[in-house]
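note to self: dont lose this again. the chain is below, predicted strucutre after it. 93 aa total, dont forget to put it in the shared folder this time
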Amino acid sequence: MAKEQTDRTTLDLFADERRPGRPKTNPLTRDEQLRINKRNQLKRDKVRGLKRVELKLNNEAVDALTQLAEARNISRSELIEEMLLTQLKQHLS
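---
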């Protein structure tokens, strides 16, 4: 039986063959890397004086915010922060 290069059903024929792909450069697992990256992101945010607030909105509100943010060339979170600060200033005055 000849070994066909596109045949991947007979795995024993390809046991020694290296598959192309991204080389593993980090000794940590992907899950551990994500945890460390998240921890570092939270530290950066804390240094910048940012706190995390979770907000659940319906699709219509999210779409409207996204369109407005894109039109103003800012991120959606920046737009929400700006809108909240404007409302707070009005209510505190």
